[in-house]
């Protein structure tokens, strides 16, 4: 039977082999481990001394830990997150992936904003930091020419969080108003049991479409057609809310016409209990029309985040809400890290966001220019990091297969439609990677998409 020190040494070696201990991990003090095992401290000291002599353990005044430079060669370690024998997880290619943003912001103003926030951390319940909400209102006034009451701005954990809280609030309002003659339109006796219904654009960016289904909302699709057909579709679908991206419809990057905006607002005002939900996707990176919330503040919810302008890692967004929904949405939002809120507030106060957005616009313009040189027959999305190449349906599948085989993450243009086949072609993202990597990836794609197979925009 092995001695107690030998058993401790064997246990630590085994944990290194199976991955439950890794180089750099701290070990309990000799006194703490002796108490835990119910053995003498001398036995633990003896085991630690043996491990130190073998170079497995590094003893310092602050305690003992597995040597950071230890090379584990006894057995091939399996990842803690994968099953033995599983195929190693390889990161998906990101070059030319639609929606992929530029590399994370690293300016001195950004780093300074975080240092200040970390130095004096705070926590904020919903609706968020008053200072951040005030600065966001000022930001909208200066960049979007729209006056927003800071109290109507709620800080969210991102666009999905804002949409989920909004839809949950609308559903609760609808339930509470059944049978009331002054309640929501959906309380009508003609359809008392109909599920909540959200109309979304078709085609459109699908990143938010999983949210309605997760909280039992039915999704219907609103065609991007002329004004008269658009109005007819709204009336026929009879939604409780409409989710639109009026300043950046995906994948074409178009802005909604003034006529459609007017029809939307007219429909909302004529439909008791209905609301418009505006996704403010990429609006700061292009010249835009006024936000719908400026045209109809009593019936429009505006969703936004800083995933594209700053970094998706920030995990922070906002929702601008009418008074009727304020309390319900605020109660349903996920609490947001106070340090992140203060960092963003510091960045706004130092004019960092405006300067960074100006740099982003220049970079976006450069990248669109690279695409247009290599693919003059393609179409870039104004103010964004996306582009489209239309193809004959006979070659689209092969082009996609060849591109993916080459490590290029382009997507089918048709995937952005629901309910019918979309226009054949591919959507190209221009955000991921350096300028050099982008240029090389586009040239590789050029070899896969010969000029004679593409459709020229009319």
Q: How would you describe the overall organization of this protein?
A:
This protein has 15 helices and 13 strands. By secondary structure, it is α/β, with parallel strands linked by helices. Strands 3-9-8-7-6-4-5 form a 7-stranded mixed β-sheet, with helices on both faces. A 4-stranded antiparallel β-sheet has the order 10-11-13-12. Mean pLDDT is 81; it is low at 73-82, 86-91 and 179-192.
Please tag this protein with its features.
13 strands, globular, alpha/beta
Layout of strands and helices, then pairs:
Blueprint: H1 4-18, H2 30-37, H3 41-53, E1 57-60, E2 63-66, H4 108-119, H5 130-144, E3 153-156, H6 159-176, E4 196-202, H7 210-214, E5 217-223, H8 227-237, E6 241-244, H9 258-270, E7 275-279, H10 292-295, E8 300-305, E9 317-320, H11 323-332, H12 338-349, H13 352-374, E10 379-380, E11 386-390, H14 393-405, E12 411-412, E13 425-429, H15 435-448
Parallel strand pairs: 4-5, 4-6, 6-7, 7-8
Antiparallel strand pairs: 1-2, 3-9, 8-9, 10-11, 11-13, 12-13
């Amino acid at each position: 039977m092995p001695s107690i020190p030998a058993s401790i040494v064997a246990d630590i070696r085994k944990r290194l082999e199976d991955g439950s201990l890794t180089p750099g991990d701290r070990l309990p003090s000799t006194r703490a481990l002796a108490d835990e095992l119910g053995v003498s401290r001398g036995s633990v000291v003896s085991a630690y001394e043996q491990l130190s002599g073998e170079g497995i353990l590094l003893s310092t005044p602050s305690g003992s830990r597995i040597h950071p430079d230890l090379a584990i060669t006894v057995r091939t370690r399996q990842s803690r997150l994968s099953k033995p024998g599983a195929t190693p997880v390889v990161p998906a290619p990101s070059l030319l992936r639609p929606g992929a943003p530029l590399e994370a912001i690293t300016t001195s103003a950004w780093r300074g904003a975080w240092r200040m926030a970390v130095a004096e951390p705070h926590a904020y319940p919903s609706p968020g930091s008053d200072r951040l909400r005030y600065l966001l209102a000022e930001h909208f006034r200066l960049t979007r020419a729209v006056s927003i009451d800071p109290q109507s701005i709620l800080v969210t954990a991102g666009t999905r969080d804002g949409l989920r809280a909004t839809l949950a609030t609308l559903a609760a309002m609808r339930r509470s108003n059944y049978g009331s003659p002054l309640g929501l339109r959906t309380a009508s006796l003609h359809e008392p049991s109909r599920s909540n219904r959200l109309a979304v654009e078709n085609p459109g960016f699908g990143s938010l479409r999983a949210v309605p289904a997760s909280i039992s909302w039915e999704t219907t699709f609103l065609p991007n057609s002329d004004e008269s057909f658009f109005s007819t579709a709204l009336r026929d679908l009879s939604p409780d809310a409409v989710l639109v991206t009026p300043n950046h419809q995906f994948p074409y990057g178009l802005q909604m016409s003034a006529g459609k905006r007017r029809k939307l607002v007219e429909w909302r005002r004529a439909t008791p209990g209905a609301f418009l939900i505006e996704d403010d996707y990429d609006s700061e990176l292009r010249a835009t029309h006024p936000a719908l919330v400026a045209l109809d503040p009593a019936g429009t919810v505006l969703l936004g985040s800083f995933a594209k302008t700053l970094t998706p890692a920030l995990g922070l967004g906002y929702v601008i809400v009418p008074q009727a929904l304020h309390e319900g949405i605020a109660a349903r939002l996920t609490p947001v890290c106070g340090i992140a809120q203060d960092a963003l507030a510091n960045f706004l106060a130092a004019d960092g966001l405006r300067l960074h957005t100006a740099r982003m616009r220049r970079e976006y313009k450069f990248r669109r220019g690279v695409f247009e040189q290599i693919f003059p027959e393609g179409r870039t999305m104004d103010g964004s990091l996306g582009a489209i190449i239309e193809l004959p349906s006979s070659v689209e599948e092969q082009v996609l297969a060849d591109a993916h085989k080459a490590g290029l993450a382009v997507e089918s243009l048709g995937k952005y439609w629901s309910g019918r086949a979309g226009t054949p072609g591919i959507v190209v993202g221009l955000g991921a990677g350096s300028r050099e990597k982008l240029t090389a990836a586009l040239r590789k794609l050029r070899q896969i998409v010969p000029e004679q197979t593409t459709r020229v925009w009319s």
